[in-house]
Every structure is written in structure tokens, then in C-alpha cells.
Amino acid sequence: MDDNNKKDLTEQVEDSKISFEKLARRTPSSSRFDKITTLVLLLICVVLALYVILGTVNAGTGGAVQETSASTSINVNVETAEPGLFQRLTRLNGEIGSDNSDVAALPDATGTVASILVKRGDIVTKDQVIAYIDPSRPGMNYKESPVTSPVDGMITSIPVSVGETVGTTTAVATVSGDKTLHIEAALPERYTGTAAIGMDAYFTSVAYPGETFNARLSFIAPSVSTLNRTSAIELEITSGADKLKEGMFVTLDLVTEEQDDVITVPSNAITEVLDGSIVYTVQNGKAVRTPVTTGSSNDTRTVITSGLEAGDIVITAGTVSDGSSVNVL
User: Fold this and answer.
1) 75-85+261-328 adopts what CATH topology?
2) What is the per-residue pLDDT for 55?
3) 37: helix, coil or strand?
4) What is the pTM of this model?
């Protein structure tokens, strides 16, 4: 609005004020028509004043409004489609087992335990003497018979005491030899079709928070239990076995499907529509609706079997439509 128009409006407002003041000085006996006229003039004054004020504000901010409306590009995050390895993990609970190499140390003769030379936790070697048995009978004295360790290992139990009578089938001590640890778990029936011997796995233990160990599937039972619809499996531990103990509980992530040299995208980049699935790609600074065919999915990513090629730029975050101008962050 130019200065001359503002001046004319201002004069009109002032004239209205004067007319209103004249009417206001009339006596209470003024007619009902005068009162209505007064209200109408008052409203006109208010409207004209607002018009003048708004015109001034718009003139001062017009450049900023125009500048804002010109900025229409949508900020987006993107990812370049590249072939790679896809894995689907299945989480299971498992337990550390072993090949049970505990061996009993047995005496060669019946008699009483004359002495025990070891205690629980001692490390012994094969053929090391760990106890003596006195095979003497009343009126007859015999040389004490030694009891030796059958293997290298650790004494884990001593179930007899000095003076106790033992036979040739009574264990004087139990020796735990070197054990090969493995993981025992149950695989749900729905995964038995994709799981295969040699597949990798990752597992954790509450004893070592934040640390991940590796394993490999080494056995799948040939049958499915009718009680819980699972197959027993065993996994060879390929890292960290020296830290683990038999009987430990573990959380296991088993690779139940693996595909190499496939294109995947974040699952949240895919939109389901009436005629299938789509993603949005960036072409010449604009979002382009791109139909795709999807395959297997895991918790975060989905395989794209058709619709994308290596090098395509896929929008992974940002609300766009077909043809939207985009600004790649």
C-alpha cells in the first residue's frame, strides 16, 4: 500500500471518529436509529484501523513470505543399492554341553582306604598315584595297593574317606579330562528346511556381558519331536571356548538363511500399495515411485529380487511422493 492510500484511509478513520464523538454527545433521548448508526460507525472505524495495520505488516514481511514459499525441496536420507550378503538370524536359547570325559579312578583290590593323596581341584597326570588301598585280612598282611589316575585332568570329586571299605567297582575319585564343549539347542520345525550343517551362529552368555562368541552348526537331529515340534541340534564352539563352562546358559543367533550377491534395502524404505510394493528412488533431484519385488526379510533388511539395479539411490527416510523435489542429506 502506498503512502497516499494510507493517508486517505487515516483521514477516513479520523472523520469517522469525529462523527462518532458528535453522536456520543447527544442526549439519552436520541432515537433508536441514532444508536444503531453509532454502532455501525464504530465497527467501520475498527475495520478501517485493522486494514491499515495489516497492510503495513504485509508490506514489511512480503519478501520473507515469498522467500519461504520458494523453498519446497524435501530433506531425505538415501542409500545406494549394492549387491551383498543377506543373512536371516533365528534366536534360540541353548546350553553349553560337553563330550563327558569324566572318568572314575577304580582300585585294583578290595580293602580299606589307607590314604588319599589328592583333594578336589588338584591337577593330575595319567598313572599318577592318588590313593592307597590296604587289602589285608585278619591274620594276613598285604602290601598296600595304589590307585592311579586313568587320564590327565582335574580331580572333581572324592566320594570315599580314609578307613572306608571299597571294592574294585567303587570309585575312589573322579577325574575330569580335557572336554570339548559344544552348544545344545532345539530348532523349531519351521526352520529345519533352511538350516544346514556348517551354518554360522553367534551367541552370548550372561557371564561375559557385551562379548559375542562364534559357533558352527555341526548336527541336526533326523526327526522332529512331537511334543514341542523341534529338532535337537548341536553347534561346535569356534571361539572363546576357554572362557566357557559346561552347563552355562547362552542366547544363540543361528543363521537359518543366507544369500550372497543380492540387493537389500532397509525394510522401512518399502511401502506396500494395492498393486504390490514400492520404494522411492532419487533421479535428477526428484523422488521417483519405483515398483519392486521383495524376497526374504530379517529384522532390519529385505531382499529386492527385481525393480532395482546396483547404483540406484533409494530414499530411506523422508516423506515424499512421486515427483517431489528432494534434498539429499
Assistant:
1) 2.40.420
2) 60
3) helix
4) 0.53
